[in-house]
Amino acid sequence: MMNNANEISHHTKLYGFIGESAGQSSISATLNKLFKTENKNAMMIPMNIREDDFFFTLLNMKKSHVNGALISNEYLKNLVEVLDEASEAVIQSGICDIVLRDGQKLIGDVLGMRVLAKFLKENGFKKVALIGMDSRAKAFSSLAEALKISYFHDNLEDLMLFCKEINMADADVNRIAEGMDIDFSVYDAVVDFSDFDSLNMASRLGGINLDMKSKKEFSPLKVRAHELESKYIGFDEMLNELSIGIFEFLNEKKHLEDDKSDMKF
């Protein structure tokens, strides 16, 4: 899961992908192919970490040779309290899915929701139905200014408070609940961050339907999309976009400046 020859040197910038089942994901391999294509001496290594060992792993990163890590969905909220610095998106949403080490400081940011918003915008999916109002929904809303978002939840009062929290004035709020008949076909995309066990109330879905869940996670949106023969996109279908997003993020933070044109893989 490293590079073609599984070789690293003391010059190699090492990054981790931390999750309970990180080794089952192809994100590390996909990113490492991009590192190789772009001639960067960097590598991401999958790190299978149990919840009991998560904080120990992150705190030890401060004194390790690992320069940062991508964080899997199950640990998005766990990381915030160990950060030394955090981006505005982390502060607003309470989640963090990428961390960089600067000396012995850990600096956190939100990447996945930024990649998702960029993907929708660049592919012309501008009218979006957002189901749910968890921390990912907060992060997505704050990073998706170019999109026209309609909000859906089973409690309208809570949803209006949510929109007030994220400074979304005059938001389009809608109720969605079991037994209703909701037609999402007027939307370019449906993004689901809800805790619904079923989305049978959706009689039709959007042009594309996304929830960024891995293959291991149960996805009611995926189930409903299959039933309605609609296009579904999860974490694994976004690997290329996520890898490019990670690469651009590391470049922006000047983490990939040590370019070894003669390095061997």
Tell me what the structure shows.
With 265 residues, this protein is of the alpha/beta class. The chain contains eight helices and 14 strands. The chain has helices at residues 27-37, 51-61, 88-93, 112-122, 135-143, 156-165, 220-227, 239-252, and strands at 13-19, 42-48, 66-71, 85-86, 98-102, 105-109, 127-131, 148-153, 172-175, 182-183, 189-192, 202-204, 208-210, 232-233. The chain has a six-stranded mixed sheet. A six-stranded parallel sheet has the order 9-8-7-11-13-14.
Q: What order do the helices and strands come in, and which of them pair?
A:
Elements: E1 13-19, H1 27-37, E2 42-48, H2 51-61, E3 66-71, E4 85-86, H3 88-93, E5 98-102, E6 105-109, H4 112-122, E7 127-131, H5 135-143, E8 148-153, H6 156-165, E9 172-175, E10 182-183, E11 189-192, E12 202-204, E13 208-210, H7 220-227, E14 232-233, H8 239-252
Parallel strand pairs: 1-2, 1-3, 4-6, 7-8, 7-11, 8-9, 10-12, 11-13, 13-14
Antiparallel strand pairs: 3-5, 5-6
Helix pairs in contact: 1-8, 4-5
How would you classify the helix and strand content by structural class? alpha/beta
Low-confidence region ranges: 1-5, 259-265
- Strands of the widest sheet, in order across it, are 2-1-3-5-6-4
Alpha carbon gyration radius: 19 Å
* β-strand amount: 15-25%
Percent range for helical residues?
Answer: 25-40%
Mean pLDDT: 92
Number of helices: 8
**What global shape is seen?**
globular
Count the E strands: 14
Largest sheet: 6 strands, mixed
Give the terminus-to-terminus CA distance.
13 Å
User: What is the subunit arrangement here?
Assistant: single chain
Order of helices and strands: EHEHEEHEEHEHEHEEEEEHEH
